[in-house]
Each structure stands twice: as structure tokens, then as C-alpha cells.
Design a protein that fits this description.
Blueprint lengths: L1 H9 L9 H8 L3 H8 L11 E3 L2 E5 L3 E5 L5 E5 L4 E5 L9 H17 L7
Amino acid sequence: MGEIVGAAVVSHVPPIVLPGSWTDDTLRECSGLLGAFQRGDYAGVFPGAQYRNKAWVLEPGRVLALLGIHGQFCLLDLEDRLMVIGFGSYPTQVDAPMVASMLGLWEAIRAATGERSTG
């Protein structure tokens, strides 16, 4: 899925599996979505984020997260074409230490490659 989303942003050559309009709509900052997200269960985990089309938008227009259960994740910086994928078998479906570890890894990789921080 991460590769499909990334390709939708940078490629307009057929075959297009996911139209760029989906990515544009997903990444677009929306005050209603931001407000709703901040009132939800994950507001403390991803402050300033929004949720749309099965993706957590960490930086509108740029960074999104696709999350599964038990530690599966895909983090994408579409501007810098950076993608980090993790397959997991964490003992619980989701919890704060697991998410903190995932975001710590993301921040360390972005720092090592010279990219901006999402935090």
C-alpha cells in the first residue's frame, strides 16, 4: 500500500492503481478532520494529526501513516520520498510503548537522512 500511495503522488503514467486525487484528498488539511481527531482516542499519540481514508495524516500535505495491528506500520514522507515499513508481532493489538517505538524509529531515520521531524 505504501508503494501504491507513493506512486500515486509521483507518477501519472498508466497503469495508475490509486488515482492522485485520492492522495490529494487524503493529505489535504481539513480543520473539521483535525478537530474531530483531537477529540478522539489517538489525539495524544499523534498530536496535530488527522485521519482520512484509512490513513493518519501526521503532516498535512506531506507525511502519513498506515497502521495495522500488532505492530504493522508504513510511514511515508511523500515530499522526500521516504518510506519505512515494519512488520510486527507485538503481543497486544496497539498500545503506547509500541507506537512510541515506531515513531522513535521514524524520527531517527528521518534525522539520519536529514529530513524534518514530525514531532
